[in-house]
Specification:
With 75 residues, the protein is mainly α. It has a single domain, classed as Arc Repressor Mutant, subunit A (Orthogonal Bundle), CATH 1.10.10. It is 44% helix and 8% strand. The protein is globular, with a radius of gyration of 13 Å.
Length: 75
């Protein structure tokens, strides 16, 4: 599976934000939850239309973005 199979951007959906295909669930919502320590199981319970593969696609999408952009870190 490629993240691009599960991720979409449509200007008519969520103001063009990156979402899980076929939903209005933004990838950033999934990533924010994971970053806050929310488990995949809890995310799936909160968003029943999501699958474990959707969460993995969101993580893979974020990894792809991290390869493309460098954010300077201060010591």
């Amino acid at each position: 599976m490629s993240w691009s199979d599960r991720i979409s951007v449509d200007p008519k959906v969520c103001h063009g934000r990156v979402c899980i295909r076929g939903t209005r669930i933004m990838v950033s919502v999934i990533l924010d939850n994971l970053a806050a320590g929310v488990s995949s199981t809890e995310i799936l319970q909160s968003y029943p239309s999501l699958t474990a593969e959707d969460i993995q696609a969101a993580i893979s999408y974020a990894a792809e973005l991290a390869r493309e952009r460098i954010i300077p870190l201060t010591a």
